[in-house]
Amino acid sequence: MITVFGINLFALFGQLLVGLINGSFYALLSLGLAIIFGLLKIINFAQGALYMLGAFLALLALKYLGINYWYALILVPIAVGMVGILMERFLIRPIANEDHLYSLLLTFGLALIIQGAFTHTFGSSGLSYSVPEALKGGTRLPFMYLPNYRAWIIVASIVVCFGTWWMIEKTRLGAYLRAGTENPKLMQAFGINVPLMVTLTFGFGVALAGFAGVMAAPVYSVSPDMGSNVLIVVFAIVVIGGMGSIGGAIITGLGMGIIEGLTKYFYPEASNTIIFLVMVVVLLLKPAGLFGKEA
Predict the structure, then answer these.
(1) Mean pLDDT of 218-224
(2) What integer pLDDT is reported at residue 202 of this predicted model?
(3) Which residues cross the membrane (predicted)?
(4) What's the longest Cα–Cα distance across the chain?
(5) Residue 77 in contact with residue 210, Cβ under 8 Å?
(6) Alpha carbon distance 162, 160 (integer Å)
(7) Is residue 153 in a domain?
(8) What's the pLDDT at 1?
């Protein structure tokens, strides 16, 4: 044990690692929410349930089809994205011109249905999903032991998050997406199929939740409640970063995970509420969020 100024560095860095891992999942889930709301103005309360669906699909694919983790990491987000496409096309699009509250209530109801169906089928207890063989073990660092799979989560989530940000903010496709949501009639006049673009964008935002679910399966217990437990925290992070801010969702997700980890070491009693306390302070000082734009 190494202690500096009364601080146990092994325990501190261990909690920072846990916080960064949680922050990686927060970033992925809040990024999906930010894309869906920022580009489509849809409040998707089913994001947590779809995150849970991704974890369960990875587990079931391994158990019944023999599809390993690496294939699941590709196939499951596609499958969850297809579920999102069907949701947008047949459920959300008919109420697209109504108040945002309608989409919130609809997706909240869908989340309850999905969670209830999985609870009825698999029960409420958690199921285990083993770490892939290639990522077992870890590395001994000066102040901590770093499991390989935890390091993979951090690296993969950062690459996916910032790759998504670059695609939306810096490419022609991203420019079409932003223009199509801001002025759909003008884009349709140029021959762009805006409804298809909206559907695919919603599917991509949902696929990020499926991707996070697959990566979370070996870390957390795969259970029907795993999505509802994290959803409220993720919505708070989206609010802190600024509703619809792509970069804000990524930075705030990672940052709040680190703050949560530090709080678990210095003041554990506040670790479950620190993110909501930060949200309250941010809303009082900057109602649009840290990276959001004032209306």
Answers:
(1) 92
(2) 94
(3) 12-37, 71-92, 104-129, 149-168, 189-218, 230-254, 266-285
(4) 67
(5) yes
(6) 6
(7) yes
(8) 57
Confidence of residue 217 (pLDDT cuts 50, 70, 90): very high
pLDDT digits (tens, 9 = 90+) for 125-150: 889 999 999 999 998 887 778 899 99
Q: Is residue 200 part of a domain?
A: yes
| pTM of model > 0.85 | yes
Residues 37 and 199: beta-carbon distance below 8 Å = no
CA distance 14 to 145: 8
In three state form, how does the secondary structure of 32-44 look?
Answer: HHHHHHHHHCCCC
Residue 1, domain member (yes or no): no
Cα distances (Å, whole numbers) of residue 45 to 32, 108, 163, 263, 272:
11, 5, 24, 27, 21
62, 72 in Cβ contact below 8 A? yes
Give the span between the Cα atoms of 173 and 111, in whole angstroms.
30
Model confidence at 173: pLDDT above 90: no
CATH number of the domain bearing residue 23 = 1.10.3470
CB 37 within 8 A of CB 243: yes
Distance CA 192, CA 187 (A): 6
Domain hosting 249: range is: 13-285
> What stretch of H or E contains 246?
helix 246-266
**Count of structural domains, the chain:** 1
